[in-house]
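Milestone M4 deliverable, item 7.
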Amino acid sequence: MPVPFLRSPRRQDVLIGVAGLVGGVLLWAAGLHTQGGRPFGGAWILVPLCVMAAMEPLRRTRPQLALLVGTAALVADQFTLGNIATVVMFTDLMYAAVLYGTPAAARRIPIVTLLITVAATIGFAAWLRVPEALLIGVVTAVVAFAPATTGALVRNHRDAAEAAGLRAEQTALLAEMDRTQAVTAERARMARELHDMVANHLSAIAIHSTAALSLDDPRTTRDALGVIRENSVEGLAEMRRLIGILRASGDDGEPAAAPTLDGLGALVTAARTNGLDVTLEAVHGAVPAPVELAAYRIVQESLTNALKHASPGLVTVAVAQRDGALTVRVVSPYGDRDGPRAPGSGAGLIGMRERAALLHGTFEAGPEPAPDGGKVWRVAAALPVDPADPTRNRTPTPGQGGPA
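Output delivered:
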């Protein structure tokens, strides 16, 4: 278990200095020296020792200053009898200067110590002209170059570990962002599916229940209750289907058993049952499932909006495939409406726009002048179709294409 005093790097450095000072004093008291015949003997050996020990607490915070003063103390030690503790602490200051110093100092110090080592070896060998002079170069390398090189290696490993940790954090952050975006996209998809599946049935229920309450006519009330029951059953079936989608999706990422354009006829029939005067014209080839689902939902939501907000009159639905895109166009009368109206929140338009945007298509919705001088509400979407998909034109089938 770590000692609390040693947990702080500052305290560790102070302890290193104290240990070096105590060790050096004990060596001096025992009469153990590294050299002899120097001009300053006796207690002068303690001066460089104390200076070197005083620099140890600065090895992390001011490493270059500590090395500079420590170098001066080592030079002064050469004029005394010498203490091995002073030399050992100098090697630690050299190591710390490279490890904790600036990047520029970490690059320069190993090069400088290498040059000093080479110069000392060649210079003393040429001056003394004895093989033993080479040992001076070895000692210089051990005292200066080896600690500097060790510090550079440790620093490189530390920087590499920090870079790897930073990359791991960035990867984890990106993964979390991807997860959040995936959850948000899935929630938006579920919201669109829920709205498009159930909104039309609930809108019909709201309108017909309001009519049944406002008209004191048994036959009208009975017809309205029949429509309400039919939409309630269909809405419940759609909710069960949505639950099935949430429990198990297809392999291609689209909802299992997603509606297709072949179901537009049944969709229009249901809209007529709810009181809309609607026609359908659909001429298209084979299209990808995502495009087919988006087109179906846009038509479904457009009919729901027409049921809730359109004025009396004909609603036209046209689906066609041309120029590499599947176009959807729904036009309904626009103006003041007599009779019950279901509330709207605008989520339908948002959902249709999102569906088109997800397929890199276009979507427009809004009022425009009609040929008869009035106004109509037009919904238009163009959904790109993959040109690699096979296309075949098919003519409208009874109950599905053409005016009805």
